[in-house]
Amino acid sequence: MHGRKRITQEENNSLEYKEEQAKKISQYRKALDLFSIDKTENICTEEALVHSTGILDLNPDFNTAWNYRREILLELFKLMSDNEKQAKLEQELEFINIAIKKNIKSYWMWNHRQWILTTMPSPDWQKEAQLVDLLLHIDATNFHGWDYRRYVISKMCEIVDKDEVIKKEFAYSKEKINQNFANRSAWHYRSKLLPEIIRIYQNKPLKKIVKKEIELLKKAIYSDPDDQNAWLYFDWLLQYDSEENEMKESYVNMIHELLELEPNCKYALEALIKHHVGLSNNGPVALSTNHMCMEYISRLKNIDPLRKNKYIDMENIHRRCRTGIPISSRSSPLDKNNLSQLSNFEECFMQSRPIVSKNFSTAINAIINLLRFKTGLPLAGPVSAYRDVFRLNSLIKTAKLSRFAAISLSTLDISDSNTESSEYWKSIFLTKKGNEFFCNVDEDYIMDRFNLTGIQATVPQFRAALELILDELELDGITEELYNEIHASADHLYGMIHARYVMTSQGLMKMLEKYKNNDFGFCPRIYCNGHPLLPVGLTDIPGISAVRLYCPNCEDIYIPKSPRYKYIDGAYFTTSFPHMFFLTYPAYKPPCPSKIERFVPKMFGFKLHKIAEIHRWQDKQRDQQTKLLTEKN
């Protein structure tokens, strides 16, 4: 790959290959020892530069060696003139040219090359452009080369006519795309250049520029419909569509034509589904269109069985369209008129309550509480009112609501098909007193079954608890006692998922925001001067110990002040979280003091003499020995 010959298993096991590898390892160890001595003793001489050359010649991916090599060069430049500095950096470029041949995909080497040209008094950007041309001629899909090309071109635009350079690069990207329609880097580069081309030809109609792009895309798609790159570029290009949606119409017509030739093209089917979702965002879609999307999704399941779960999710989205409600519609906060309607609705309901059935009564209560919850009003009734919010979806389906109730729901733009129901359980859980330490776990993370591996055996009523968290639980026939058990299991399940989520990059970012906001409190130790704390567990096994708070300044743990935290399991935050947090964000870890400040006992302003401590210890030991002798006698 990328011009590097693959070594066969037979060659790998040969005696000659093993001897050659042993020799390289020996050379590498010697070079590493020399380099380590130079770095430890901070030696910045020509000899140290030679030692770094030796180690990088054997291992171009040694990031530390590249960093220290720059330090050596900067130290040597202090005694050089500009001409000498230029000559030295040109030698460095020659060394890089040799290193490129050994490992063209080394991030650190390309980073070092950029540093050389930035530091060089007179860099030759034209020569660099020729080098990149040669590189992309050898390997046209190498993203390092394309990334470096963008850097070189940006520098060239500072010294020559920018518009002319952009035009040439735009033509160059088309040339590379025509050579290989699967060249993702070339498509990406073209997407970066197109806005500049539109700026340059601002007097030219946008339709003409976009039309040429569509011609190129059609050529690419018809040549290889199973390549994703052209489809992605076309999807991105739609942002330049006119108000009449001419481009989108052309796009849809092209897809239908393609499907006649290639009925199993999954990207064409996905594009059609996405187009219909876009229509549904602007209003209700026809039932026939929805059925068509469901048919496309069914075909995709057979064409691409590895992504079956993805298509099941798409199916669930389109089921919501059957009610004629836009997919993207979300209930906005109610205005004053709607609030007055809510008040009238409650009043009418209270008057008719004695004559309605129990199921209807429960459903209307749930509706009222949902409306209150969405508008920020306190929920009516006892704590069970929270549960009514979750019962709403299933009750509306089963209860025979009066025409008045149905009209009220439609007027207030509330229904089970357009509310982000999964946010209700989490919103209530996270705002509950004592749960302030938890962060909001992404729904995608919860739905990924791989993230739940091993938890199922530790949580009773696992399936029902998971459905409750995602607000997919059908509550018909569930008793009050069983519901309470499921609710408790849901709390525990969320905590166990949270323990894993806070160790991911997304979870750490959310906990960082809480840390910045001092949501976990401050260290009670006087000499820590109110340093922020982080939650930590004493064990990773649930049910043993409550959550504790870790101070990175004194490196000690404390019991939270409020008694409400004594019911929060420490396993929900793991024993490793604070340490992973500061490994990920070292800038937030306080510097290690040379001497930890401690309280010094004094009397009348004088320190207690250490002899007093020794005397107290001696007295204590004497009393213990006397007690032992007395017991023996």
TrEMBL record:
Function text: Regulatory subunit of casein kinase II/CK2. As part of the kinase complex regulates the basal catalytic activity of the alpha subunit a constitutively active serine/threonine-protein kinase that phosphorylates a large number of substrates containing acidic residues C-terminal to the phosphorylated serine or threonine.
Record-linked InterPro entries: Casein_kin_II_reg-sub_N (IPR016149), Casein_kinase_II_beta-like (IPR035991), Casein_kinase_II_reg-sub (IPR000704), Prenyl_trans_a (IPR002088)
Protein name per its UniProtKB record: Casein kinase II subunit beta
Source species: Smittium simulii
Reactions catalysed according to its record: geranylgeranyl diphosphate + L-cysteinyl-[protein] = S-geranylgeranyl-L-cysteinyl-[protein] + diphosphate
GO biological process: regulation of transcription by RNA polymerase III
UniProt record similarity statement: Belongs to the casein kinase 2 subunit beta family. Belongs to the protein prenyltransferase subunit alpha family.
Domain of life, per lineage: Eukaryota
Gene Ontology cellular component annotations, sorted alphabetically: cytoplasm; protein kinase CK2 complex; UTP-C complex
Keyword check for Repeat: yes
Subunit structure comment from the entry: Tetramer of two alpha and two beta subunits.
Record keywords: Prenyltransferase, Repeat, Transferase
GO MF term list: protein kinase regulator activity; Rab geranylgeranyltransferase activity
UniProt KW Ion transport keyword: no
